[in-house]
């Protein structure tokens, strides 16, 4: 992963965290309601992994937002 990728993933993770907290979801609740493991949610929010498009859609549906909202950072 190069420096630019890392910056994008960190910005994405911070945006996801902001949106999740805005919905009053804990990481555990997001994981449970989305069917995505807690460890994966943590890794996404900390910019350690690059989630797939399918994962983004599931997260967006769980938070009842548009998938494009996740990319608005």
Give structural notes.
With 73 residues, the chain is mainly alpha-helical. It has helices at residues 3-22, 27-34, 38-45, 53-63, 67-70.
Summarize the helices and strands and which ones pair or pack:
Layout: H1 3-22, H2 27-34, H3 38-45, H4 53-63, H5 67-70
Highlighted features:
5 helices, mainly alpha, single chain, 434 Repressor (Amino-terminal Domain), 73 residues
Largest sheet: none
Q: Could you give the order of the helices and strands?
A: HHHHH
Structural class of the secondary structure composition? mainly alpha
What is the CATH class? Answer: Mainly Alpha
Task: Name the CATH architecture.
Answer: Orthogonal Bundle
CATH topology name, in short, is 434 Repressor (Amino-terminal Domain)
Short description:
With 73 residues, the chain is mainly α. The chain has a single domain (3-70), classed as 434 Repressor (Amino-terminal Domain), CATH 1.10.260. The chain has 5 helices and no strands.
